[in-house]
């Protein structure tokens, strides 16, 4: 069976970008710092749980992190737990040969560290209910993971360019909100990895913009308009995301100002003169959507401040 024109285009683009991947992989390896999850966990705080070892059952008062940070840490860990699905998704798009395969495997290995250190920290410090966490992990992973835009190379690369930066912001702010210096240090370490991952994908898509500006611009717009974090399938995600947003850990303003806008600026989306047809149309759509996103962010901020003022008034 002959390839469709779309598949031919995608495979041709992947081949053309192989040298870019080699360069970005070398850059990543030169900047990535080796670190060890066990060094970020306060093991001396650990003790046996109830069950076969007859230890102490978990209770909420044992957790020393804030409720907002607790919910965010759960979301962050359960998101990391779906790594087999993410690996399959990017391996399907990028392939497993040459520099592409080397990157996919390196990225997967680095991401796996995040799940390791997060689970060890949460378990040892009794920050969250370990039984509820395990049940949620099972439920979330049984759902699997399917990329929103299927096996599209451009859409997939655009998505991770934004998603890795969103994850970095969420991790850093979760650490700051935790009230625990050990947690903050750990989350900062994880966030540093996510930043390097973002740079890899951002630079890769930037190269694709030079080769196929119209098709890449369409992919960027599609992704921004339909963007969802990979953990949307987590049990109770909507409630948790509201708590996280109200705490200012990750909300619409951060998404607009600290994630979407900086990446688009780096790609010089608004200054490009090589767009026409659907590429021009996609950029117009993107501008309109960002204006709506900005307005929604302002509305959310206003309502949040009003709620906080009412709460403060009741306490006084």
Please provide a brief summary of the model.
The model has no long low-confidence stretch (mean pLDDT 93). Helix content is 72%, strand content 0%.
What's the overall geometry?
Answer: globular
- Return the CATH topology: Ribonucleotide Reductase, subunit A
Largest pleated sheet: none
- pLDDT averaged over residues: 93
Instruction: Provide the CATH top-level class.
Output: Mainly Alpha
Organism: Actinomadura algeriensis
Protein name: Acyl-[acyl-carrier-protein] desaturase
Keywords: Fatty acid biosynthesis, Fatty acid metabolism, Iron, Lipid biosynthesis, Lipid metabolism, Metal-binding, Oxidoreductase
Cofactor: Fe(2+)
Topology summary:
Blueprint: H1 5-16, H2 18-31, H3 67-81, H4 83-94, H5 98-124, H6 130-143, H7 153-178, H8 181-211, H9 213-225, H10 237-246, H11 252-266, H12 278-315
Helix pairs in contact: 2-5, 2-8, 3-5, 3-7, 3-10, 4-5, 5-8, 7-8, 7-9, 7-11, 8-9, 9-12
Describe the 3D structure.
The protein has one domain (16-315): Ribonucleotide Reductase, subunit A (Orthogonal Bundle). It is built from twelve helices and no strands. Helix 7 runs antiparallel to helix 8 (181-211) and helix 7 packs across helix 9 (213-225). It has 316 residues and is mainly α. The N and C termini lie far apart (73 Å). It is globular, with a radius of gyration of 21 Å. InterPro entries: Fatty_acid_desaturase-2 (IPR005067), Ferritin-like_SF (IPR009078), RNR-like (IPR012348). One of its GO terms (molecular function) is stearoyl-[ACP] desaturase activity. Its EC number is 1.14.19.2. Belongs to the fatty acid desaturase type 2 family.
